[in-house]
Amino acid sequence: MKPDATSAQPPLLEIRDLRTWFPVRRGVFSARAGWIKAVDGVSLALAPRETLGLVGESGCGKTTLARTVADLERAQGGAIRFKNEDLLHADAARRRALRRSIQMVFQDPYASLNPRMTVLDLVTEGLVEHGLLRGGRGDEAERLLGEVGLGPDAMLRYPFEFSGGQRQRICLARAMSVRPELLLCDEAVSALDVSVQAQALNLLMDLREKHALSLVFISHDLSVIKHVSDRVVVMYLGRVVEEGPVEAIMECPLHPYTQALISAVLIPGRKRGPRQILPGEIPSSASPPPGCHFHPRCPKAMARCRTEAPAERAVSGCRVRCHLYSGESHKQNIQ
Ligand code: SF4
Known about the structure:
10 helices; alpha/beta; Rossmann fold
């Protein structure tokens, strides 16, 4: 679903220069020896009813970014505005109220459900906690389970009695119970079998339409990202390296990292070019390479890439951080 009017509407979520760093401690006194810069200066915006696909290798910071937005990690700096309210500096009560509108769905549905609670208690817990329960708990549970394709017979059972796909449906019912406006889906369908994955994705898309949700969809599967997203953000070592409309990113990626990611997978409707294999692994975000963080693995690295971090540039409707698109290099590298 495309946002109704991306440019005309104020963003639902706006992130500016966000930094989520974790201290590295060493020695008997646990003195701070440095920082793991999991998210390092990320800015992005999400319009109402828009779906943003977030991609990058493990360790690029995409999960930490989502967890920071969901208030599961503390940011060291920057700003997160939700419906134009400052999430990071709101008082505890306001923050809790705003957070209700932002729900996270995790990869492992079993780990995110308390095994000692019945499904009835699991899906209505948030309603009770936020004072949203209007009728009986059983009626609400039945309605919520119906929305995710489960019958009332599920109510008195425990999570271990369900398959992975059904558990993810329970997680979705639980997330939807508090009437969120934004869902952060962190590899939400990745652990499921392919056939079940398609059902879970369709359910998610139906809920998105029905409840006018905005979605941040994190996945390593670019064909899924292409299927669900309006825009795509590509992260590398805590930073956004490219962002743009899904068609532009999939058909004509600008950043060498995005090009390599896309060349490695078969995406429906896209002619596959030669596969680019990146040397080495993503470096530690405790000691990122100087200049462009990607330079040790980049097939197009130049001398300046080793010392100078590329600034963000607008190119062909996308935002990209790469020296290939600055000054004279720019014209040669736009195809
Ligand atoms: Fe490669 Fe240089 Fe562009 Fe970084 S700035 S992606 S090293 S060409």
